[in-house]
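My current task is to audit a protein record that another person submitted. Please read both lines and tell me whether the tokens look consistent with the sequence. Do not assume that whoever made the record got everything right. I have pasted the whole thing underneath without changing anything:

===
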Amino acid sequence: MEIKKLYDKWMTGKELYKGQVLFTTEAPMGNVAQIPDNNKYILSQRTIAFDVASDKITNDFLAVLLRSPKSFNELSSLSSGGTAKGVSQRSLSQFKVTLPKSLQEQKKIGIFFKQLDKTIALYQRKLEKLQELKKGYLQKMFC
């Protein structure tokens, strides 16, 4: 099936947008991502996209909130299943959070953690390159 037909079959009327928060409900439960751009993406099984009430919460803040250990532990307590733990949309509706009332404060928190994630990723790539360099030097020294 061609991609356009597949997209129209699964996503028409439910298009994802840049910044929208995605959450895996199972296998593994609790992965959080945000749509990176305005390309058309198809939502996979066991993944939900949150539609936020933009007058109450920002997407960036929701992503930070869902990635927090406290939220993960609370969601895990709502999950069911043996080997592959999962949380249902019904259980998710019972998930209660406390939000800063100020959207401006939420934006600042979201931006702070996004920048922190970018910085961590940058240093992880730098570390990987240095580890490869070290490996190369060791191979040259002890060949």
Remarks:
- The chain has five helices and three strands.
